[in-house]
Amino acid sequence: MKPVLFLLFLFLSFSGVAQIANIESQRIQSDTIGWFGNLGTSFSLIKNVQQITSFDANAHVEYKTAKDLYLFIADYNLLKSGSQDLTNNMFYHLRYNRKLNKWLRWEVFTQLQQNTITGINLRVLAGTGPRFKIVNTKKIKLYAGTAALYEYEQELTSPPIYHNDLRNSTYASVTYLPVPTVQITSTTFYQPLFRQLKDYRLLNQTTASIKISRHFSFVAAYNYLFDAFPAANTPKVNYAISNGLTYSF
Fold first, then answer.
1. What domains appear along the chain, each with residue ranges and CATH number?
2. By the 8 A CB rule, do 170 and 189 touch?
3. What pLDDT sits at residue 19?
4. Tell me: the pLDDT tens digits for 88-115?
5. Model confidence pLDDT, tens digit, residues 122-135
6. Cβ(240)–Cβ(10) under 8 Å?
7. pLDDT > 50? residue 4
8. Which end of the chain has fewer CB atoms within 10 angstroms, the N or the C?
9. What are the C-alpha distances in Å from 48 to residues 52, 80, 81, 162?
């Protein structure tokens, strides 16, 4: 299968919600063995009352064998108005998935993030845990997983505040395909600290994809994030709506 190139035109950005990465939405659903992925970049410069600069770059690469899956995701976003950063974040994710039987996989992953708007100067994660295939029919697919992860975080404060924590990350993801041209996916993550359960993050992302031609699809997404103890006293609740087009070949 040839690599898929996604050209996504977002009407609204949801960089603030990206403190928790929804890897479920990034998995390429295919039974074909081999390489898959996409690369993309965009740049714009607007000058009127203010100078607005926008730059985005992303990469998504997967390699799949009969039992193994290797996944790498990288993303960088910058949006400036004059000298003020409206969005400035980077994200890297590396994951290995091993098929143990028809319904059980084991995953190991690591992740690096920086998001100055949400007060995260640096966040590094490393974790491992099982992933379960619960339902797999033509119209409904249900997956769930849980992992123990180590989290190192440096808040964007003066002086810097550092955290070294162990978290649980549990998720459930359901995909509904009422007809071949429509796909609706909803994923919910719950991430509490082991030592302090009231310190948790909750994320839900729901997306709808409608195929409008052989190569084009319309995609709409709703993202909600609640962080009981956000970095640098940023808001506890972030939410966003985005929509756009994807092109594949």
1. 15-247 (2.40.160.40)
2. yes
3. 47
4. 788 899 999 999 999 999 999 999 998 8
5. 899 999 999 999 99
6. no
7. no
8. C
9. 8, 14, 11, 40
Angstrom distance (rounded) from CA 165 to CA 151: 5
- Lowest mean pLDDT of 2-11, 25-34, 80-89, 239-248, name the range: 2-11
Q: Closest by alpha carbon to 149, among 21, 16, 17, 14?
A: 21
Cβ pair 26, 62 in contact under 8 A: no
Of 218, 187, 182, the closest CA to residue 203 belongs to: 187
CA distances from 86 to 16, 23, 89, 187, 215 (A): 10, 25, 10, 27, 33
Q: What is the pTM of this model?
A: 0.74
Q: What are phi and psi of 162, to 5 degrees?
A: -115, 145
d(CA 65, CA 61): 14
Name the residue with tokens 């949400």: 118
pLDDT, position 219: 82
Residues constituting the chain: 249
**Cβ distance 20 to 201 under 8 Å?**
yes
